[in-house]
Amino acid sequence: xxxxxxxxxxxxxxxxxxxxxxxxxxxxxxxxxxxxxxxxxxxxxxxxxxxxxxxxxxxxxxxxxxxxxxxxxxxxxxxxxxxxxxxxxxxxxxxxxxxxxxxxxxxxxxxxxxxxxxxxxxxxxxxxxxxxxxxxxxxxxxxxxxxxxxxxxxxxxxxxxxxxxxxxxxxxxxxxxxxxxxxxxxxxxxxxxxxxxxxxxxxxxxxxxxxxxxxxxxxxxxxxxxxxxxxxxxxxxxxxxxxxxxxxxxxxxxxxxxxxxxxxxxxxxxxxxxxxxxxxxxxxxxxxxxxxxxxxxxx
Amino acid sequence: xxxxxxxxxxxxxxxxxxxxxxxxxxxxxxxxxxxxxxxxxxxxxxxxxxxxxxxxxxxxxxxxxxxxxxxxxxxxxxxxxxxxxxxxxxxxxxxxxxxxxxxxxxxxxxxxxxxxxxxxxxxxxxxxxxxxxxxxxxxxxxxxxxxxxxxxxxxxxxxxxxxxxxxxxxxxxxxxxxxxxxxxxxxxxxxxxxxxxxxxxxxxxxxxxxxxxxxxxxxxxxxxxxxxxxxxxxxxxxxxxxxxxxxxxxxxxxxxxxxxxxxxxxxxxxxxxxxxxxxxxxxxxxxxxxxxxxxxxxxxxxxxxxxxxxxxxxxxxxxxxxxxxxxxxxx
Lengths: 299, 331
Known about the structure:
The structure holds 2 protein chains of 2 kinds.
Chain A: E1 18-28, E2 31-34, E3 39-45, E4 52-58, E5 64-69, E6 75-79, E7 87-92, E8 98-103, H1 111-123, H2 129-157, H3 176-187, H4 199-202, H5 205-208, H6 215-221, H7 233-241, H8 243-267, H9 280-298
Antiparallel strand pairs in A: 1-2, 1-3, 1-8, 3-4, 4-5, 6-7, 7-8
Chain B: H1 12-21, E1 27-32, H2 37-43, E2 46-54, H3 81-90, H4 99-109, H5 114-123, H6 125-132, H7 142-151, E3 154-162, E4 165-169, E5 177-181, H8 187-200, E6 210-216, H9 219-237, H10 243-277, H11 282-294, H12 298-330
Antiparallel strand pairs in B: 1-6, 2-3, 2-6, 3-4, 4-5
Coiled coil (chain B): 219-266
Catalytic activity (chain B): Thiol-dependent hydrolysis of ester, thioester, amide, peptide and isopeptide bonds formed by the C-terminal Gly of ubiquitin (a 76-residue protein attached to proteins as an intracellular targeting signal)
Enzyme class (chain B): hydrolase
């Protein structure tokens, strides 16, 4: 079975708490050298685990290469003083892991502010749902007023800087009253929490083993075992416990939540009208159930 | 033009098979869990050690004179460090039968400087193909993403006795680090404090080290012992005055048989795990889910998993809140 390669080139739909253009740097011997690719650092609270994540993605391929979970006060983002360039480091307290970045924003004057914002976000603890929503609203409001300020300044200056050409130009301007109104509307929206399922909880020996007493079930599974596996139910149970299989189902869980749901459903001929309100994995599993039910009705 | 190199898992089974597929015979890689004299003694003969650690700057001086009489290559290819560390051992041990491909590679690169040797590794199709065949089968790109961030910091180096000196081969350095004179008999006791010192430099919280021994596959030796003891038993059986010796010899034979069986089990385990690493699991996953759906087991499993997700989320939130309280009280 072949799968579409570009499963992860799905468009980002949510607004990030903070994002700015920055490239990575890599170590070569004792030197740290810039990776010349155009990149983006962004921070977000993951909807899956509600933890703060620090991401770096390649802007040309849109592929996320780094995804780090950061606990409050565990990491610090700071300028590398030894370098004259716009070089920044993300250091962790609990480990010796260090990541270097170089700023790619057209102007250097916001560097310090961005650096401070990164640390503010890392250290800001979201302890319950309500504050999540409030903070999110505050961020959205800030973003809106920023874009308002920005568009106003741009209109005032009327300049055409080369560096800002790829910036998204806001199309709407908001008055102060409108902003207040938006803020009130946002404050009344509750973001629903999804409790998505996890394939690792489902494809366990405890759930699967009782079915392996049925010879037909085993026969359906044998062709999909690795080469040279003994063809008995024990072999299937061993597979379910193996780190390689568990790694694979976790990778599928992750892929489903990262935009692979649509392409996979199409690939498998599943009903794509199933609601995703309970999460991508639940939607995928329910679609599999529905297909089975339909087949049984027909026969 | 050299193609890309994938990250591979640091595992004795992977390394054993990788070395075999490069064309080298009679090598077994074993993981070392403790550095006690007894554990190291049991592994002998050991050709070299591979050490995996979280990379940190290290200022140990290098021995530039030694590079003329050994194989030392600078790492010029990203993700190749596992294979590079393995080659550092294989190509510096004259007693290892390298096989046609590596023999040719060694001959072709013998006059190159460390940088060019590193480039030559990157451009060798045979070595790259074997290395890349150990990429975990992954129809979903997420794995590569995770591996990238890890691979930036983890690094493999090797320790191997070369021309009477204990050498540390690290492709990120200009040359090998010479840890002093050693012999075939004592080099393992000399390398022990070197590795212990290295580990001690890290905080106690750092536990991500991995040490593996590239050893001579003991099977040949076992078979030789087996042949000898069988002949001895045959002789003793014809001599009625040697009953006790005969019984002793039979016990020895059982010991050797046990060792051969344990060795077979280990190789089987390596083979099963490697087959699993290279397997595409997606069709099995879908078939399993279909079977659960057909038997009415899927819906209850979904509900149970959702409940677990909810509980995990609550637990994490509590941890976060605690972390915050602790952090603010300590600052």
